[in-house]
């Protein structure tokens, strides 16, 4: 048994004796209490144990050495990084009636927010990384500091590795309420950061234009399809009408009938006039062999025969063959009605298409840049003091937690 255990046992025994004497004996005075305290044994001097040396060694190995190595790496090997910030917003230009003002504001905001969401995800995806890599060779830009393997891109990196590294070097933030997108772009040279920021801005503008074109095509696609259908219907109606005219050798059957009806009316008028003249001749002469009567009768007969021929031609059709004029006119009127209906549908579809195109042109989307990229003059990363402090704090916390777990297990044995 060691000395510390003996001292503890001695103190417990003295305390028990003192408590017993206090219960049986009268209250001691102050002098007796001082004498009693002076007779208690004194604690032995403390000294370091092997476990204390082990604890100090683990602290040095797990805290001090890594912290010193981190400080040396940050001071000697870590390369400076220059950052460029670019900020923009997506806007949609619309023009709606005053009665739809509230709806237009809500619709414009929601459309802009959806476009901003798409653009935010696009700036963090593989596509923009691949396009910028083709333009600027990102793998070479990010692997410039050969002595800095921690903060630079390793050799032989794939597109997935480059995309992961891009997410570390390009921090994109998005304010959903205001629709503002801001990107902080870092690299190991200020010129590279500026060029990457300009490429991001250009590709983002192209993506918005692509989205605008897709929305425009979607809005006018139905109108264009309807216009194509009505155009084909109008072309078919006119083709059938032309074929009818060629087959029947007349431009307008109604005009032809009106001409024949005019001829019949004229013949009927001439017949009536000749009959009256014949009656007048008969009343003015007493001779039945008057040559004027014979001539008038012959004229009346000729006119009547002509009228009969014209009426027969109206019933028999063109030149006495083919369908009668009534069927021709009926077919012609049906073709004309089909053409007029097709023309009306075509005009309505054309008006709808023009209105859809005008509306789509008014709803154009574009980028509004509120923070253009500029050339950085001083490096902002890596934040050496912050990294060193966080590293040291993390090491101390892990070491303390390990020491507490170790002593807890040891005390329970």
Automatic annotation (TrEMBL):
One of its GO terms (molecular function) is protein tyrosine kinase activity. It comes from the Bacteria. The keyword Lyase does not apply. Keywords: Membrane, Transmembrane, Transmembrane helix. One of its GO terms (cellular component) is plasma membrane. The chain crosses the membrane at residues 53-76, 385-409. This is Capsular polysaccharide transport system permease protein. It comes from Celeribacter baekdonensis B30.
